[in-house]
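User: Is it possible to get a 3D structure for a protein together with its bound compound? The compound here is flavin mononucleotide. I've pasted both below.
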Amino acid sequence: MDTLEAIMTRRSTRKYTTRAVEEALLHKVVEAGRYAPSGGNHQFNHFLVMRDKAAIQHLAHLAKEAFAKMEITDNTYVSLKTAILRSQKGDYDFSYHAPVLILVANQKTYANNLADAAVAVENMMVAANALDLGSCWINQIKWLTVDTEDQPVLSYLYTLGLKKQERVYASMILGYPDTPNALPERTALARKGNEVSYL
Ligand SMILES: Cc1cc2nc3c(=O)[nH]c(=O)nc-3n(C[C@H](O)[C@H](O)[C@H](O)COP(=O)(O)O)c2cc1C
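Assistant: Yes, that's possible. Here is the predicted structure of the complex:
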């Protein structure tokens, strides 16, 4: 698959088999993230590559508990509202039981933290597609940690190696899609937005 095809056929995968991602493939995906551009070539991204099912499930559990305590207001972002409502019902797992969760952390005080993490995640998702793996952007850890100093999710991430001066700005899940042919769904969604003005 060439680069343009990998970009144009990348889709989000939200159902995975339990098959582990081979180390060599995982390394290729993570390297694609590490080779993304960075503002001023600072390379401040810190990739926390979670492969332990129990650890991912513990993080999902802490996130569910945190969302369940939140209140919905008129301004609550629609996806966050879903997370809160489902967590309050006890039925929410942001990780979709994927075998790998990659958290991309960056320096709290660095102006391009979100941009650098985002380009790394896009590189990794395109690489995953080229390697016949499924992936999906995961935003919940950012919601829960970016603007806080005191949060059980954050405390747990410190035990996994997140540094005090870092926060998670973008994340993704990765694994083998649970589809009849074990390949990612690759039919592009029609573009309704993303206006272009050629000048
Ligand atoms: C910034 C951002 C945040 C997203 N957050 C989530 C998320 O938390 N959970 C999820 O299932 N999908 C998430 N997505 C995936 C989008 O829902 C998905 O890309 C979109 O619906 C288009 O579908 P496609 O990726 O299959 O083309 C996110 C995507 C982006 C770019």
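The domain at 3-55+98-175 is CATH 3.40.109.10 (NADH Oxidase). The beta strands are 46-50, 100-107, 134-138, 166-175.
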